[in-house]
Amino acid sequence: MSACLSLNPPAPALPDLNRLFRGLVQQHGERLRRFVARHVGNPSEAEELAQQAFVEAACTYASFRGDSQASTWLYGIALNLVRNHLSRAPSRRYEFDGEDALADHACSRPDPSQQLALTQRMRLLQAELDGLVPEVREVLLLVSLDELSYEQAAARLDIPVGTVRSRVSRARAQLRQRLLAA
Questions:
Q1: CB-CB contact of 18 with 4 (8 Å)
Q2: SS3 call for 42
Q3: For 67-82, what is each residue's pLDDT tens digit?
Q4: Using alpha carbons only, what angle is made at residue 27 by residues 24 and 31, rounded to the nearest 5 degrees?
Q5: Which secondary structure element, helix H or strand E, spans residue 133, and what is its range?
Q6: How far apart are CA 121 and CA 158, in angstroms?
Q7: What's the predicted TM-score (pTM) here?
Q8: 76 vs 57: CA distance, rounded Å
Q9: What is the average pLDDT across 12-16?
Q10: Distance between CA atoms of residues 140 and 138, nearest Å
Q11: Fewer Cβ within 10 Å of end Cβ, the chain: N or C?
């Protein structure tokens, strides 16, 4: 860095410049590296380009007019380095895999026709649930969806356990019959 500074005589005194660049590196080093990595995609190349941006900034500090913040100027240098880097080897930006690479990464969601069938079944089930007598539906939902035991459902509804058992049995039989008919 001092070799670059000796080429530019109008630069500020060396201790001030060292403090400035130390502050820039501390404040923007990691963010600048991430900024470059987003454009380049390769962490080791991003590290090199970020370091190169700081070297370029140190070497050309004498030409910095102060029209913007030093960080803005630094990010501009980094962006130019990224553009140059990518223009020399555009294939570095992305790694292309063949379609075979996707075979091991099947989508966990159902395909659209399966999703449609599932949606239609859910609508039918909801319509049939809505068609049940409210007391029967309530008990069935407590036991089936909320996973309450018969005893817990009976306590919550303040009815005998036998009533819960019969209502759940009746609700399941009615739903089975209606869904088979539909």
A1: no
A2: coil
A3: 777 778 888 888 889 8
A4: 105
A5: none
A6: 33
A7: 0.42
A8: 10
A9: 56
A10: 5
A11: C
- The answer for residues whose C-beta is within 8 angstroms of residue 135's C-beta and 6 or more apart is 167
3-class SS at 116?
Answer: helix
Counting residues of the chain whose pLDDT is more than 90, the rounded percentage is: 19
| Chain centre distance of CA 30 | 20
Q: How far apart are the first and last CA of the chain?
A: 80
What's the rounded Cα separation, in Å, for the pair 97 and 105?
13
CA–chain centroid gap for 70, Å, is: 31
For residue 179, what pLDDT band results from cuts at 50, 70 and 90?
confident
Strands, E assignment, 41-160 = none
Which range has the top average pLDDT, 11-15, 56-60, 62-66, 162-166? Answer: 162-166
What pLDDT was estimated at residue 97? 64
Rounded CA separation 60/1 (Å): 11
Distance between CA atoms of residues 86 and 92, nearest Å: 7
